[in-house]
């Protein structure tokens, strides 16, 4: 009799599970989803949707193919019957990012991951919490404050440059000198930008260019490595753990690395924060306006948060302030080092562009020295026309982030530029979305849209910035910087964009004066991108080596 009951229970459970699976995998996407009428690619897998082909492709490429085929909006299938809205229509994007940023928060699953990695800082916060945090942080990222940090950018870049030139000199002393050294430039750039954000962002010396012994630096590097490359399995685990939270308690290598990294970061961040808070409180008690406080971003943030004019309810608590430290590290280091890495690749692939840029930088440096200055001043660095064009083109062509994801907090109708026909024959110029819907906005597609940028949109061409077609201004209204979406737009735009752009210019200007870069292999090295939080380069056929950019590096002779 008991066996019969167990058998019955098994049958009922199987029927219930099969019914739920049928509902989620078939009924929901094809009959209940508010975006079911939109065009899009066919589902490749009943359970995994289009995810396997997305993961297999380079960041942004597949989404651009779909959007080019179906228009500025499409529907594709994510895992477990989830339909995701895909957008590159600028009218729709502006509706989300500019007009209604807090009605389209990051999805809960993504916010949960961000909280684990970064804490409850600016990238995690939504709504009133985000407004409150951003208001306190904004003064630290104004142009006058960022300009003061330029010497830090240049000093760290000089240390990196010295190491590169030492490598070239060592090769020159070998038995069969080639006149150049081959090494992975991304390694030096990663360490340089980490040291920059340490000093300029936290007022803290990582010293990663000189050694690898700093506990906080090592914990941060371990964390980013443990995140790894997105895979079908990693996405599946995110879904499963969200549904069954107790699974997160099961030990595994990634979780252990993350926990240890978080423990070290919490300890070291607390030390840095407590010291800064103590210094600022003592300075404010003295009420001596002639005594200037430290100018790093964290000191400015702590100072702003302690301002007596700020109401208690508007202040950040200690955990929120410390969460900004991790946010600074991740957002400030990963994105800039990646942009600088892609810049050196494009210069290596285009020697005539590299030569022209070097001439501009060398002349600017000579002018600075004639004025008795050791480095190019930030105002000059910001306005050098060809350097500016190259940095804008890199962020357009090789944006470190290929897209951004949002959820839907309340029912809405998103306006689109091109009307489409509903199954009942009616035409509409809006997309109906319901709470729980996820939306992927393709930065890659917008930045390479031929309708906006012209027929050479998929070509690296800095000269386009000296004669932009009218379609660029018309097609990118509302965008934050340089007619592109790389720093997003609206109240959720990247708060540190000035910092990132000036740091990129400083690093490239220092490196290009004294180093010449060429592709590693005579016939060119095949480089492709994979997403590791940001889009990083790998060498085709050398995936086991991980992300890298090996280049031929030689010393620029004075005659040049």
TrEMBL record:
This protein's UniProt keywords: Heme, Iron, Membrane, Metal-binding, Oxidoreductase, Transmembrane, Transmembrane helix
A Pfam family: p450
UniProt superkingdom: Eukaryota
GO MF annotation, one: heme binding
Annotated positions binding heme: 494
InterPro entries: Cyt_P450 (IPR001128), Cyt_P450_E_grp-IV (IPR002403), Cyt_P450_sf (IPR036396), Cytochrome_P450_monoxygenase (IPR050121)
Cofactor(s) needed: heme
Transmembrane segments: 6-26
Residue ranges that the Swiss-Prot or TrEMBL entry lists as coiled coil: none
PANTHER family assigned: CYTOCHROME P450 (PTHR24305), CYTOCHROME P450 12A4, MITOCHONDRIAL-RELATED (PTHR24305:SF166)
Family: Belongs to the cytochrome P450 family.
Protein known as: Cytochrome P450
Organism per entry: Mixia osmundae (strain CBS 9802 / IAM 14324 / JCM 22182 / KY 12970)
Gene, per the UniProt record: Mo04423
